[in-house]
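This part of the workshop introduces the protein records we will be handling. To make this concrete, we reproduce a full record directly below.
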Amino acid sequence: MTDIDHSAHSAAADTDGPLLQPVHAPIVSRHVADDVVDRLVTAVALGLYVPGQQLPPERELAATLQISRTTLREALKQLTENGYLDVRRGRNGGYFVRSAWGPKSAHHVRRQLVSRWDEFQNIFDARTLVERMIAQTAASRRTEVDVKAIAAALKAYIDAVDHDTSRLADAALHLAIAKAAHNPILVEMSVDFRTRISLNLGAEPYSDEARRIAIGQHRDLVGAIVYGHIEEAGEIAADHFKLSENMFRALIERASGDSDKKGTT
């Protein structure tokens, strides 16, 4: 889709009602830029982007969200003015995450998540069921080639030195495990769940504590798959994928808590 097409899409969207579409869907609402702000503030609060990290280039981010660059720039301006982003000029410039939480974060998080919470709970439930099955199937069908790919992906995750490297390695590891099930439909389902959980931004919720836990779970999961421990692999996978779910729930609680505090002051 060209920039002209994006702009036409956004202009048409401006006449629509409030955003009530699936979280992974293109952003369409009366005020598109406001919805972009809600989604990006929520993404930062979940650790999809972390303080100091550079956002993707405008063209890439606009394409990911399926909006015009004009709309994206409006949203980025709001985020900058409200203290979430810093702008750096020059050859290596761009938008960098300044703060993980701001005075209006609770409001943005509630608008992004609360109205869709039933959908999220269905996603969490389905993901746990499917990823359990994928791990079990991988443990029963893995080949030597699969084992090497999974082991390499695990090492890359453990050795990751920053958020971006860790994110890419995590995705590669779970993709390698899904491929070891030798069913392309299961691979597609695994990738689709990751897309939904990432708010279509390409990363799982992240924190240093979550990464520490994930390293141990990844080691245990890979071990169970490599040695063909089918039931154990399924149990570990089901537990592991609750990490993201728990971070979403904690964020909802934080946003609700902030709202309660403001109501009592």
Remarks:
- The chain has twelve helices and two strands.
- The mean pLDDT is 89.
- Residues 117-141 form the longest helix (25 residues).
